[in-house]
Specification:
With about 425 residues, this protein is α/β, with parallel strands linked by helices. It contains 16 helices and 19 strands. The strands form six sheets. A five-stranded parallel β-sheet has the order 11-12-13-14-15. Strands 4-16-17-18 form a four-stranded antiparallel β-sheet, covered by helices on one side. Strands 1-2-3 form a three-stranded antiparallel β-sheet, with no helix packed on it. The radius of gyration is 21 Å and the shape is globular. The termini are far apart.
């Protein structure tokens, strides 16, 4: 196939061949015309850097079968998924689909059960206990060894810590308890002793700064309450942040916003269409109903600004917080790219930086959390041929446009077969839903 490969040389065209699931030849053959709107670009598979496979994205609080979630991801060209609210039974279902359906399949890495604080003296529970999947509770340092050993026994390869009071803006009310500092300080060290990385949920600058001082370097969200200063970024040397705009944005969306965004290619083919019926009846945003419209709107502005600042510094990971209501598996990642690009998609280098971050960079993150050496030379002779063919910039398509084609280890993904498999699962007595 004749393709452009911006990762290797944006000025060249390549002839690429695939044999036995691997790239057998990647050879530069011509100069690339920047105005060429026909020759596709070859990029590694997309990677979702922050998913919640055990949380119900649907507006009726129903949880899709994990086999459906896997098919939804693959439909959109997402070949690797990082589950930051792990639930071993979900991973079991995911792997069952891989064995039984005979289709190309995305990979998943998970954290077992997330860990959070117990109830504080004011009656606030730790962030995470409000969700319909179990979390481990941390009260004293000795709990850490128990939690980490239990998670490892369930196949977890990293730890997710829920650490936030739930505040999004200065002086906004506290909604959750958070782990005390004298306990949090031990978490990165003890996790490392178990051979695990630690990922932490934070909302505010103060929370991030404290967690960073204790040794955390992977933050599941960008800072929400303020725009980080140059001095802040200097202090946070080596920290990485996951974007997650898509997980919060449904809180402030109008009916028309939902209907417009859910017209993205592939939504009707892969999602539960009862979600469209639900959002068509929304009269005012949830943010207005819950009296948080202004704080959440401001939080999203700060999150995007801080995400783009992280992108410039090589500190961004792109993930969606999908599993939150209205942030759907597969679909949300493509929307996340559009939210990050905003009206600036034509800014020199931004499109390529976002695509690189959602593919090559995020794949390194996935491998790191899997406990294996990050894959290098994802597009090279001898490497597994897992990739997307994407319209070039000259074609003028938004980043949420579906890939022209997706390959997993050399096998082309048949989207028609994926849709048929999803429909078959939804036609069962459970309607493709599970309870965990």
């Amino acid at each position: 196939m004749r393709v452009a490969i911006p990762e290797l040389d944006p000025s060249a065209l390549y002839d690429v061949t695939v044999e036995d699931g691997h790239f057998s030849s990647v050879r530069a053959v011509a100069e690339r015309d920047g105005n060429d709107a026909d020759t596709p670009e070859l990029w590694p598979g997309f990677v979702e850097a922050h998913a919640h496979l055990a949380l119900p994205a649907n507006f009726d609080d129903s949880l899709d079968d994990p086999r459906i979630s896997a098919l939804q991801y693959l439909y959109h060209g997402i070949t690797h998924v990082t589950d930051l609210f792990g639930f071993p039974l979900v991973k079991d279902g995911w792997e069952q689909g891989k064995r039984e359906l005979g289709l190309p399949w995305p990979e998943v890495v998970h954290c077992g059960y997330a860990a959070t604080a117990t109830k504080d003296i004011d009656g606030h529970y730790g962030h995470g206990v409000e969700f319909p999947a179990p979390v481990f509770m941390l009260s004293v340092q000795d709990d850490l060894d128990t939690v980490l050993a239990a998670n490892k026994a369930r196949g977890a390869t990293f730890l997710k810590v829920m650490y936030t009071e739930g505040a999004e803006q200065p002086e906004s009310s506290k909604r959750f308890s958070r782990l005390p500092g004298n306990l949090l300080a031990h978490v990165p060290r003890v996790a490392a002793e178990h051979g695990l990385k630690a990922v932490i949920d934070c909302n505010t600058r103060d929370e991030v700064m404290q967690a960073y001082a204790f040794g955390f370097r992977i933050f599941a969200h960008p800072v929400r309450d303020v725009g980080l200063s140059a001095a802040d970024w200097q202090t946070l040397e080596g920290a990485r942040f996951v974007s997650t705009l898509s997980g919060l944005r449904p809180m402030i969306m109008e009916r028309e916003d939902f209907l417009r965004e859910y017209r993205r290619p592939g939504f009707r083919e892969t999602q539960d269409l009862s979600n469209l019926d639900f959002v068509s009846k929304i009269e005012e945003p949830f943010g207005i109903q819950y009296e948080v419209q202004e704080t959440r709107t401001a939080a999203l502005v700060n999150m995007r600004d801080n995400s783009l600042a992280a992108l410039e510094r090589g500190a961004l990971l792109i993930g969606t917080d999908c599993g939150n209501t209205g942030a759907f598996h597969g679909d949300a990642l493509k929307g996340e790219l559009d939210l990050l690009a905003g009206d600036d998609l034509g800014k020199p280098g931004l499109r390529e930086a976002l695509l690189r971050t959602a593919t090559t960079t995020a794949r390194g993150f996935f491998d790191e959390l899997s406990g294996r050496e990050p894959a290098t030379d994802l597009i090279a002779e001898g490497s597994p041929a897992t990739f997307n063919l994407i319209d070039p910039a000259a074609a003028g398509q938004p980043l949420s446009q579906l890939p022209r084609a997706t390959y997993v280890r050399g096998t082309a993904v048949d989207r028609t077969a994926l849709v048929r498999a999803i429909q078959e699962l939804r036609s069962t007595p459970t309607r493709g839903k599970v309870t965990v």
